[in-house]
Every structure is written in C-alpha cells, then in structure tokens.
C-alpha cells in the first residue's frame, strides 16, 4: 500500500498521513518487551511509514532509546520529540503508569535553558545528531493546573519560545510546535508566535470534535496539525478506556451509536476513527500507538479501508459529528 504524504506547514518536510506514535512502546499500562518495541518501529519503516514521534516522558527515556536504536540507521525517517521535561536520576518505588521505566524522574522546565538542555539530552538518548520536529510537551492547565501553568507559560513566552525559534532558524530542527491534549492551548500559542505544526491528542476524533475551531485557525495560519490518540486511548478500537481511564457511560453510549451507523455502511468503527481526522484541511497526519507489528498491521488495514462519503453524512445527520 502506498501511503500519501502531506507537507508540514511551510517547511520542506513531507510526512506520511499515517505515522507511528512511540509512547505505547515504552509500556504504558502494560509492558512491551524491548525487542518487540524495536520490531514495531522496523515494521513501520517496512510498510512505508516515514514519521515517528517520541518524547522524554514516555517510559522516562525508554521510548527514545528504543526508537533511536532503529531510526538512527534510517536517515530518511522524520523524527519528532518533545521538550519541557528534564529527566533526573531517581532511586525508589513509584506508581507512575509506566511498566519498567528507566530509573529517572521528570522535572518541568519550559525556559530557554530548559528547552536547550532537553533537546540535547534527547539527541543523546536517541543516539542521533538531529531531530526534525520539536514539540513543547504538555503545557496547559490540564497537566499543571491554572496557577502553575501560568508560571510555565511565562517561562515559554519569555525564553523557551526564543530557544525554539533559534533552533529552527539555525536549521538545527526543521519545525517547531506544541504537543498537548487540550485545544485552547494551541489557540493561545498562535497568539504567542509562529508555529509550523501542532500535535493535538484526543480532541479532534470521531468521538469528539471540540478542537475543530482551533484547527480552523491553524488552516488559516498555515500551521499543520498531527492528530494523536485517534482511538481516544482505546474506546474507538474495541477497548474500554477513554482518556486513559475507564470510559464513562455517556461515552460508551455515544460509541455504540457511532458503531451502529458504521455497521450500516459495512465500515469497521476503528477504520472510520482513523480516517475521519484527515478530512480536515489542517490535518497532516494521524498518529496511533500500536504495541506490536501485529497491531500495526491491523491499523494499516483499517487505514486502507474504503469509507463511503455517505457515512460521514449519516453521522452528521444523527448529530454525531460536528
């Protein structure tokens, strides 16, 4: 199967419309053997996927190590990682959601020096001398609360953004953006400066389209959007989790309604979930997070399913789509 490519903002980067999110490979919720993680990255390359996203937070460095083991031998691969967290050595027991993380803890820092240090540390963990896209990770009230986020936003506005701009102007990275779970942060960022691409997880999916207004803003500004979490952490792919927690009853009811209409058109619900975000003109790529080559093969099959236009119209008629 030939994967289409779309351009990142006004840059020269062209990424496949299906990418590989490497958070799951670090073992969130359940363990992923290291060789299985590497095999998943290798298989993505074999399938023609050219875009790979990771971050220091994922397994506290484990995801960057695993993905770098494979990607450093493939210079044509387009790689993104994230800044805003510095990793520090840690001793002790924790309940943090990651299975078998590396022995580090995280310290938030969105300042000029923090961004530069985070970037350099990521290059060392990846074992690479370049990263193509650099995202500011998880800045926003959802992660930090209103008061603390105001402090971190000031760090980004007063110094962190300057660091990102310098890295882009020197061609050290090709594109800069934010990687977040809340749409309002992206609107605020558009008022701060000039961004090439945003990674928005979970807020523009078949299940919820609260991020639609900011995606419209991005389309007008020429800022691309990568959609992470197209299955809303599992509920749209046969799982029972929504936003990484057990799905509430109202979400389950809405998913059943979506599934019933998809069945009328003989379309698997996960196929519709994968392909829906790509209908928006700002969206460049969808970024699911398989845990194995087998899961990736299933995602590629869903991605290649034919979706009749009547399905989208029916979902709009039933007020299940914005």
UniProtKB/TrEMBL annotation:
<dbReference type="GO" id="GO:0005829">
    <property type="term" value="C:cytosol"/>
</dbReference>
<dbReference type="InterPro" id="IPR020471">
    <property type="entry name" value="AKR"/>
</dbReference>
<dbReference type="InterPro" id="IPR023210">
    <property type="entry name" value="NADP_OxRdtase_dom"/>
</dbReference>
<protein>
    <submittedName>
        <fullName>Pyridoxal 4-dehydrogenase</fullName>
    </submittedName>
</protein>
<dbReference type="Pfam" id="PF00248">
    <property type="entry name" value="Aldo_ket_red"/>
</dbReference>
<feature type="domain" description="NADP-dependent oxidoreductase">
    <location>
        <begin position="18"/>
        <end position="302"/>
    </location>
</feature>
<dbReference type="InterPro" id="IPR036812">
    <property type="entry name" value="NAD(P)_OxRdtase_dom_sf"/>
</dbReference>
<dbReference type="GO" id="GO:0016491">
    <property type="term" value="F:oxidoreductase activity"/>
</dbReference>
């Amino acid at each position: 199967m030939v994967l289409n490519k779309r351009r990142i903002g006004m840059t020269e980067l062209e990424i496949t419309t299906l990418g590989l999110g490497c958070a799951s490979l670090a073992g969130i919720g359940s363990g992923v053997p290291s060789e299985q993680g590497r095999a998943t990255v290798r298989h993505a390359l074999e399938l023609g996927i050219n875009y790979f996203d990771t971050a220091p937070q994922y397994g506290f460095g484990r995801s960057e190590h695993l993905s770098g083991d494979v990607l450093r031998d493939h210079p044509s691969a387009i790689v993104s990682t994230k800044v805003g967290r510095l990793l520090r050595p840690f001793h002790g027991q924790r309940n943090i959601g990651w299975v078998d993380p590396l022995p580090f803890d995280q310290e938030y820092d969105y300042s000029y020096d923090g961004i530069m240090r985070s970037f350099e540390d990521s290059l060392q963990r990846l074992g690479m001398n370049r990263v193509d896209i650099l995202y500011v990770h998880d800045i926003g009230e959802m992660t930090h609360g209103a008061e603390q986020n105001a402090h971190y936003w000031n760090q980004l506005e007063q110094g962190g953004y300057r660091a990102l701009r310098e890295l882009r102007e020197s061609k050290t990275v090709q594109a800069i953006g934010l990687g977040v779970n809340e749409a309002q942060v992206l609107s605020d960022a558009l008022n701060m400066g000039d961004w090439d691409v945003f990674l928005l997880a979970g807020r523009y999916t078949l299940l919820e389209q609260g991020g639609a207004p900011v995606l419209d803003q991005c389309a007008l500004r020429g800022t691309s959007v990568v959609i992470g979490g197209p299955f809303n952490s599992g509920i749209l792919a046969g799982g029972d989790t929504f936003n990484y927690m057990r799905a509430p009853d109202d979400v389950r009811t809405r998913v059943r309604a979506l599934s019933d209409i998809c069945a009328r058109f003989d379309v698997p619900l996960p196929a519709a979930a994968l392909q829906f975000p790509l209908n928006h003109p700002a969206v460049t790529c969808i970024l699911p997070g398989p845990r194995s080559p087998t899961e990736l093969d299933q995602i590629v099959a869903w991605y290649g399913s034919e979706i009749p236009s009547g399905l989208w119209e029916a979902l709009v008629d039933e007020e299940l789509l914005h």
